[in-house]
Specification:
GO terms for molecular function: zinc ion binding. It comes from Boletus reticuloceps. Keywords: Metal-binding, Zinc, Zinc-finger. InterPro entries: Znf_C2H2_type. By secondary structure, the chain is of the alpha+beta class. It has a domain of 65 residues. It is 30% helix and 18% strand. It has three helices and eight strands, in the order ββββαββαββα. It has a two-stranded antiparallel ribbon. Strands 2-3 form a two-stranded antiparallel ribbon. The longest helix is centred in the C-terminal third of the chain and has 13 residues. It binds zinc ion (ZN) (3 copies). The site of one zinc ion has 7 residues, from helix 2.
Length: 111
C-alpha cells in the first residue's frame, strides 16, 4: 500500500456564516458574514482602519476590550466567532492553527 506524502488538508470552518454583533451606538450590526470575510467587513462596515499599532476598542456587543488594531481579527475569531481548527487525526479542536500544528507534531508524529 502506497501512502502519498502530502499535506494534511485541514477543514476549517471559515466558510460558515456568523452574525456580526458589532455595535454602533445602540445598534447591533447583525449582518451575516463569512468568517473569512470578517476582516473586510470590519474595515468597510465598522471603520476598523488605521495603523496596526493604533489602539482600538472592540465594538462587539458586551466586549469593549481595548487592544491594538493588529490583534482585532484574531480577537474576534477567537473570542466571538469561535473559529476552531480541528486536529485531522483525533479531532481535538484548537483556537489557533499554530497550536493545532504543535499538537500534531507532539501527539501524532509521523503523520
Ligand atoms: Zn458588522
Ligand atoms: Zn471583543
Ligand atoms: Zn490530534
Amino acid at each position: 500500500m502506497t501512502k502519498l506524502l502530502q499535506p494534511q488538508r485541514v477543514s476549517l470552518t471559515s466558510d460558515d456564516r456568523y452574525s456580526c454583533r458589532w455595535t454602533t451606538g445602540d445598534v447591533i450590526c447583525n449582518s451575516y458574514v463569512r468568517a473569512s470575510d470578517f476582516p473586510e467587513h470590519l474595515r468597510s462596515a465598522h471603520g476598523v482602519v488605521g495603523a496596526d499599532k493604533a489602539s482600538l476598542v472592540c465594538g462587539w456587543v458586551d466586549c469593549f476590550t481595548k487592544m491594538r488594531k493588529e490583534n482585532i481579527m484574531r480577537h474576534v475569531n477567537e473570542q466571538h466567532l469561535e473559529l476552531r481548527y480541528p486536529c485531522p487525526t483525533c479531532h481535538e479542536q484548537f483556537t489557533r492553527a499554530h497550536t493545532m500544528q504543535n499538537h500534531i507534531a507532539r501527539k501524532h508524529p509521523g503523520n
